[in-house]
Sequence to fold (102 residues):
Amino acid sequence: MIQEIEGYLMVEAAREEGRVAAERFVGRLPWLTESQADEVRRAYADEYVALRRDGWGWCAERARSLRGEYEGRYLGLRRRLCGVVCAGVAVLGVGVALIMAL
Fold:
């Protein structure tokens, strides 16, 4: 639920940024008629949001990729650490057994 709200807010912020950028862009084209300017504003704002969505998609994919990579590394380190601890306990147990035998 919170992710949906966050996504909605991100899209709405991108739409507003797109409208502002479109207005700035159209302001540099004084020769356009009003209907042409409206069409450019709409197309510019739509493209702006589409580019932002593509960027979000790329970021999400990269995050998934990194998560998998780091989870793999973490599991490898955890296995090695467990192996070292088990070896240490075994050595300690042998040492205690030897001392008890004396």
Notes: Residues 32 and 70 are 53 Å apart (CA to CA).
